């Protein structure tokens, strides 16, 4: 008389473990991809905020709108221009433009967020910003930065701003018209 065995054989347990491990590896990889995408989305949001910040500054100081045009990088060892927000300081539109650009560059240099060791951590990586102002008061603000990984062969020809960043280049472009009224 043959006896029936109850339970699982060792091979069945090992096959189940292999399937479980493959599933867990897939979940961990999915988590890494989701974190990377979330960070890239955060950077895009940061670039949109920075573009809107300088646009609003330009709208408040539209008498020297054309002076805002240029290509800007992160702050180095430049000293801040005379602050226009101190009590008793009379600020011309040209001084305000210098102060606006300085504060804007300070923001995308990461100066607004400093960690415990004093390092600036709030900015975008290798930021370059380009502002062009047309004769009809059309304004184009392009912000380029280095992303986490290279793109899959796509190129953005909307602007050449930050084109030296290579395949990791990310670009946010804001086109608008500033009303002079």
From TrEMBL:
Q: Kindly state which keywords UniProt assigns to this record, in alphabetical order.
A: Membrane, Transmembrane, Transmembrane helix
What is any Pfam family matched here? N_methyl
Presence of the UniProt keyword Hydrolase in the record: no
Record's InterPro entries? N_methyl_site, Pilus_4_PilV
Give me the segments passing through the membrane.
6-28
Official protein name in the record: Type IV pilus modification protein PilV
């Amino acid at each position: 008389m043959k006896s029936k065995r109850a339970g699982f054989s060792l091979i069945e347990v090992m096959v189940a473990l292999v399937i479980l491990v493959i599933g867990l590896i897939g979940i961990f990889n999915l988590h890494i991809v989701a974190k990377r995408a979330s960070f890239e989305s955060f950077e895009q949001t940061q670039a949109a905020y920075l573009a809107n910040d300088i646009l609003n500054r330009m709208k408040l100081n539209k008498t020297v709108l054309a002076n805002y045009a240029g290509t800007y990088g992160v702050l180095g060892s430049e000293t801040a221009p005379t602050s226009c927000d101190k009590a008793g300081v009379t600020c011309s539109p040209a001084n305000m433009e210098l102060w606006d650009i300085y504060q804007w560059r300070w923001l995308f240099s990461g100066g607004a967020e400093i960690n415990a060791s004093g390092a600036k951590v709030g900015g975008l990586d290798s930021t370059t910003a380009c502002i062009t102002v047309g004769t009809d008061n059309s304004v184009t603000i392009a912000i380029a930065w280095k992303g986490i990984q290279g793109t899959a062969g796509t190129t953005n020809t909307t602007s050449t701003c930050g084109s030296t960043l290579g395949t990791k280049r990310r670009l946010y472009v804001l086109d608008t018209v500033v009303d002079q009224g």
